[in-house]
Amino acid sequence: MEPPASQPRATERTSGPPPGGAAEEGLWPDRAEQALGSRSLSLDMERATSLVSGEELADSILPMEDGRHAGLELEVEPVPEGPGSAAAAGDCGSAREEGAARAGAGEGRSAAPGGARAQETELRRQLDLLDRMQEEKGLFLQKTREELRACRQRVDLLSKQQETVAAEMAREGAANNMAAVGRLQATSRRLHTELQNEQDLQSRIAAMLRETEDALWHIEIQKGRLQALRKSHHEEAEARGRSVQVHEAQQLFKEKEALEKADKNQQLRVRKSLQVQKGLGLRHRTLVEEAQRNHKVAVKFLKASLGRVRERERGEESETREHLRQRMDAVLALKNSIAASRETLRRVQAWGRARAALTERKAKAEKEAILAQGGDAFRHLVHQQRRQHLEAQRRTFQEGQELRKQEIVGRIVKEGAEEDSRKKKQRPPARAPRGRTLRDRTWSYIAHVCTGETAVASSYPLEVKAAAHPEPSWLLKADSSESVQGVAGATGGEQETLAEPEIPGLWREDYMPHQEHKEDGNQKPVGGTKMDKDILARTMAQLRSGVVHKQVASGREFKGCPFNSKPQLVHFKDFEVGKAYKKKITLVNATYTINYCSLVGVSEDLQDFVHVSFDPPGPMSAGMSCDVLVTFKPMIDQDLEGSISFLAQTGSFSVPLKCSTRKCSVSLDKELISFGSYVVGETTSRTITLTNSGGLGTSFKILPASEVYETDEESLPLLKISSLFTCDDKGLTSVSEQQLEGNGTSPLDTQSQKESDKMEEQEGTSATGGLGMLPSEEQAEITLGEITEGEIGPFSSIRVPILFTPVTPGEAQTKFKVVFKNPKCPTLYFRATGVALDVPVWVPKPNVDLKICMYDRLYQDSVPIYTRSKVALRLKFEVCRELRGHMELLPEMGYIQAQSSYSVQLKFLPRHSLPEDAGKYFDKESRVLEAPMTIWVADQIKPVGFTVQAIVTTSDLELSPSELDFGHCTIYEAIRAEITLYNHSLLPQEFGFMGLPKFVDVQPNDGFGTVLPLEALQLDVIFQPTKAREYSFELVCKSEVNRCFKLSCRAVGVRPPLELSHYQIKFAATSLYDTSVARLHVINPHPGGSSLPRSGARVSSEEAPAGGATSFEFLLPSDLPITISPLVGTVLPGKRCLVQVAFRPVLSHEVIHEEALQILNKEIQNKLFRKDTFSQKKELWRQSLSVLRPRTRERMLQAVTSHAPQQEKQELRVSSHEYQVAQSALVRTFQAKFDKFVVPCVVASGDVKDRKGSEPLSFSPHNTLYLELWCPAVVPSIVVTSNKGKTTFNFGDIAVGHRGIKKISLQNICPEDLAVEFSVLNPSGPFALLNPFSKLCSGETQVLMLSFSPRESLLAHETLDIISKKGTLTLTLTGLGVASMVSCSIEGNVLSMGYVLARESISSSFKLQNDSSLPIKFSLRLESLSSTRALARQQLPQFLASPTQRTDLVGPQNHSGQSVFSVVPVEGVMEPGKAQDFTVTFSPDHESLYFSDRLQVVLFGKKISHQILLQGAAREHMMFVEGGDPLDVPVESLAVTSALDPEHREEWSQLGPPSPDVEELKPILLTLDYVQFDADTPAPPATRELQVGCIRTTQPSPKKMVEFSLDSVPWLQHKGFSIEPSKGMVERGQTKTISISWVPPTDFDPDHPLMVSALLQLKGDVKETYKVIFVANVVTGP
User: Fold this and answer.
1) What whole-number distance in Å separates Cα of residue 1241 and Cα of residue 1122?
2) What is the DSSP letter of 451?
3) CA torsion, points 207, 212, 215, 217, in degrees to nearest 10?
């Protein structure tokens, strides 16, 4: 411990800087850092001193005996007191060493050997303790010296700073700078204090250094005393080693004897196993012979069964052909019916188009008539459409009324009958109240409806009904009595109840109404009774009398509001639901003296939305103020008003609170726009400003007042009618609350309706006045500008332009209206007026429409011109320059008489260059021509113009392809080619193919028909040659305008060398996944001769027929359910070849995939529907059923269907569960279908066997034959009902040697009983049929049992055919025999633990992965612990055998008897697909480089799956060297060898203990071979590497790293060696590589290898020296 005198100084140093230190910190930052560093070093020294204190040292020594321990205590007591703890620690160490010496001297006298061993252990521990203390003291001494050196440097630095400050002080004093002098004086005082502290610290450190040196001397003395004990301990260790050698020799002899016995036992076991294997072989041979005999019997039975099946199939085939013929006749009849229906539909569509064109022409004619009379055709059409719309609504409403009337009458009649029957059974109820009953009101309502008294089409039906019947439930009068009973409480006593009472006696006359419900009778009115209110008022007055006082100051009593609020009104404007708003109120005391203020609360309507934060300030003087925070969080979108109440000493007061929603307040800056007077043809504009002064934006639209706004005008009649009359009882809920509660609409809607009614009245008066009063064309002269609709934001304005373009003279006036999307915004109206001056000449038809015109055809029309002038005028007609080559006005100049008309002739002849010539007047995409024409009038500046419009189209018909090549066609077939006839014109054209040859046909309609505009018509050209020759001809197609379009055709007729016995095969109706077989022959009709020439096709009938062997091949597409055998064959001349064609119908992958996706979608929809049902019901009951029910359904459907696209994107595998379920469902619901396929058969000359290798035959495509197949498919007769109808049965993973059983349910779904037979399974296979049956009745279900017993690890697959006369059902059986499979994470099956210090341990882990699908039981075994280990040790030692004969993988073992390697866990179970972690621990107890063992992984106690070699090395010291050539055997000998040979050992024993300077040299041999193939070419140097490492350890060690150095490096370099690095340091747990390369020097003799050596020194916890021997030679190439 530190002396007490030093503690105040340490406290003074750590208490903080001097008073002036803070001010001077910026001037002397380096000084502050040095002070902090000195404090930290002093604390470190104090902690280091306390590490080896005497108390800790005494506690660390274990008590041995009472006497010895007491002796140690006596030695500690007389220690002289010193300034530090180091001396005391040294004395304690000497005392312990003396006690240890006494313990060693008395060891011989100890009676018990256990006590001697304990004393020896204690002595070794004390020696280690002395070594550790010496190392710690040395380190502490070094740190103390460094601290003393640093303290002296700080003292010097402070002295220099003090001198500098004194010089500056003198200089500033001379300059009379008193402020600087004061600052420097404070700095000087601080430096003086720090200098004194540093000097004190220096003296303390020096004293501590002396004490530490004294302690080290004491430790050295104690080590000298214990030197004799250390020597005796070494001799005892050698004696123990000799005894261990003797014991090991005895143990080796015993193991050899045990090994001989084990060999004899092994030979006996081998003989027994050979006898057992011989018996098993005989038994296996017998079983195989029996299986072969059974197989022959089964094959014989199978052939007989197949013969009977074929006989039945032939009988059924004849029946099926007849049935198929009938089916084909039905299909042909259906095809003819479909063709007739298509023709009828085409006629109906043509009639509809003609009718629409007629209607359009009538409307256009009517429009032209109105325009000719000067009226507004657009307004007339709008009114006509509105009248038609209203007429349709009226008819719909009348039909609904009739249906409603019939329904009400039926219900009343039914209720009357029920009431009559009820009266007969019981006494009638009490008297009905006076007034009209429900039946009377219903009949009167029906009478009013039938007579037309009810104003159905009125604009205000709700107001009229509400005024006539003031009760709020007026709509219930149109409903039945059943719905009235549901709301009996709302209708009161006026309604007649037709149901009997639930409680007997309830309808008696003496029954008191107040006794109906006791709970209801006890209820009080809202707000309490009058007595309760009086009591509450008196109570509040009494309470307030104690709180409220009058305030009188200076003889005046204060009256009024005690506090003034700033602001006076708390207004939350334009709030949004869900957001929070805060406002601050300041309350100012307006009374004469002190007053108090407390919060009472807010209005009841605002309690859920307004929160007031107010902290009462206590007494407030007059004029003082306090703050109140008001937080408003709206939850509903409506205006709120209320107040915040406060209570003062002089009375209560309140601050009004208002919350207003965002509103839209729109207005116009003017209602009249006057353009003034303008000449016809000019254009001017004015603007009108639309302003929104509200906080809510909206959409607006400006349109003429006569137009109808779709969102308001058109939906209003439908809303009125649907609100008044409903078709079912549920319609009562569809009426909005506003219509049921109030008298109509809101004031804004009423105002807009009144304005619209005024406009309608004006339109009605103008319409009744005749056509002459209709608005003329002049009103269209005032139009809107670019901005007609848009969005107007809050507190903004928009300027809208209005254009005036006068066309005809006179006054023009137009009314406009501004409508808004927000229904609360009223419709705004404004007018625009202007005056147009007179223009004399005009064209009544400004647009001359020539309709659709064709190129190169002349079109004419007459254009009338009128004048108002009273004099004749000269006119000049001008066509635009671009169209002068296509259009002409005749005459070009003329005179129009006064107040008359003039007609000019328009001629239009479009050329094909029109699109290029017309330029901007012709739209190439739409083919529309708009050509402006100009009429110049003499003495008139503005010309008169009109526009000629026409759609120009072509008359071309395009045949695609332009040339048709049928290729080679045999005379036994017909080829059909598809062509496309495209009409480029916008007009329909008739066409026809003229002059067709006899061998060509065009269908449909024999090549005649009509092609619609821009239609592509598909036509079939059928070519059937009659002779074998070349054909070349043209097909001519003529249009109705007599244009001809030609199609060139060519073909070659061929007679093939082979023939088919049947060119058409009609299969019988075949079940799905069943097979039908047909036979045909390929015939070679030639009698003999040479083979077919290689040119192939015979195109001439006069050509001599070829002979010889001819080959054929059927080219069968891969996606057809057809199998042909053989596909390839050869037919000799005059011979025939039998060909079998099999038809097996299956379902396509796409159809099954689509069905599987639908099944998945249905499952997801059901899950989502069940999940959302509860929440959706809540939402439906909360809100109106009529409005929200459709929206809720849409959301539900959207939520359900949103997952459908995701499922469609999934790709299902064929083996998936959903795919097989869909396949089985489609099989059961399969509808019979008929397919027709055509299979080509190519022909080649020569024999297939003659081709060389895989060389293909030269097939000629021209001699191809075609086989037509008719394939009907029907539903199977036997289906699988279990396993969801799947025909594939997977037994799953079955362990080898186990058995799995599957049960399969089969059902006969055909109307007759079936005899069933089964195919034979593989007798040697793993599958077996357990219970076959022979008959399956109609509708019956039988259970079939199959077993799977794998004998080895394999994937088994077999098929079982269930055969009946209706077809064959194939079951696919699969199963997997699973053997245990385990993978290891160790690569190479070698786990190296590296280097570790002796008597320490290190751990490493690895993983085993279960790759099989079954759980695996495992256990781990070490070779060193196995029972056969003793037998292996009886053989010769491994170091005596050659390296190739060494098989023992178990290295040296621990001397303690414990295993070097251990692993956990030893056994367990690995789940499928899981991994198991194992930890291997390496714990050597002595030094060896050859520790090894073998770890075996045993599965199920039998199978060894992995053998892992465990390797490790142990060292006594922390350094090691790896590399070099092996110089010793890799097996540790049982004999313990000494470091020195016997001669030297005797010499050293005579001389005394060995000197520490003598070190053992460990050899390392490095052989470097310099490979040189060419003397002229330099070769790469020979290289070797050494690894120097430092072992990581947990024990404390003074050396944290290992230093290595290699001497004689220059001499080695002179010999050609290059070493990098030659010295270095290695951290713990790290290795460093020394690279050695050699290039032969110039004086090197290749015949004599170079051998040099160098010393490699390693310094760690000890010093080791290695002698590295370098052997270098040159190796030359062959």
Assistant:
1) 14
2) H
3) -100
**pLDDT tens per residue, range 582-592:** 999 999 988 88
Query: By the 8 A CB rule, do 893 and 902 touch?
Result: no
Strand order in the sheet with 570-575: 570-575, 651-661, 640-648, 597-602
Separation of alpha carbons 381 and 398, rounded Å: 26
The encoded tokens of residue 955 equal 């008359």
- Omega before 704 within 30 of 0, i.e. cis: no
d(CA 616, CA 647): 11
Provide the Cα torsion 1415, 1417, 1420, 1425; round to 10°: -170
Beta-strand relationship, 1059-1060 and 1076-1083 = antiparallel
pTM above 0.85, yes or no: no
> Is the pLDDT at 769 greater than 70, yes or no?
no
- CA dist., res. 1642 & res. 1639, Å (int): 9
Confidence band (pLDDT; 50, 70, 90) for 327?
Answer: confident
Q: What is the pLDDT of residues 1400-1458, one digit of tens each?
A: 888 999 998 888 877 888 898 888 887 776 665 656 555 555 554 455 678 788 888 78
Count other Cβ atoms within 10 Å, centred on residue 344: 10
| Tokens 């509001």 belong to residue | 561
The residue length of the chain stands at 1678
Coil vs helix vs strand at 1294: strand
Q: Retrieve residue 244's tokens.
A: 């261990």
Residue 1666 tokens read as 């290695």
Q: Which residues contact 1532 (CB under 8 A, 6 or more apart)?
A: 1451, 1452, 1488, 1490
Helices (H) and strands (E) in the chain, counts: 26, 76
Q: Which residue has the higher pLDDT, 226 or 833?
A: 833
- Per-position b or e across 1069-1091, b if 16+ CB within 10 A of its CB: bbbbbbbbebebebebebeeeeb
| pLDDT single digits (tens) 222-241 | 877 777 777 777 788 788 88
- Tens of pLDDT, residue by residue over 1002-1026, are 988 889 999 999 899 999 999 988 8
Are 376 and 384 in contact by the 8 Å Cβ rule? The answer is: no
- Burial of residue 1005 (CB within 10 Å: 0-12, 13-18, 19+) is exposed
Average pLDDT of the chain, as a whole number: 75
- pLDDT at 1124 (0 to 100): 92
The region of weakest confidence among 107-116, 739-748, 1159-1168 is 739-748
What is the pLDDT averaged over residues 1259-1280? 86
- pLDDT given at position 2: 38
Q: Are 1202 and 1161 in contact (CB under 8 A)?
A: no
The answer for residues whose C-beta is within 8 angstroms of residue 1399's C-beta and 6 or more apart is 1484, 1485
DSSP states of 1232-1293:
PEEEEEEEEEEEEES-GGGS-TTPPP-EEEEEEEEEEEEEEEE--SEEE-SGGG-SEEEEEE
Residue pLDDT, tens place only, 385-395: 888 888 888 88
- 1569 residue type, one letter: D
Query: One-letter amino acid identity for 351?
Result: W
Burial class (CB in 10 A: 0-12, 13-18, 19+), 588: middle
DSSP 8-state secondary structure symbol assigned to residue 1195: H
CA distance 17 to 190: 9
1211 Cβ partners below 8 Å, 6+ apart? none
For residues 349-379, one letter each, b for 16 or more C-beta atoms within 10 angstroms of the residue's C-beta and e for the rest, the string is eeeeeeeeeeeeeeeeeeeeebbeeebbbbb
Residue 1453 exposure: Cα atoms within 13 Å on the Cβ side: 16
Provide the 10 A C-beta neighbour count for residue 1348: 25
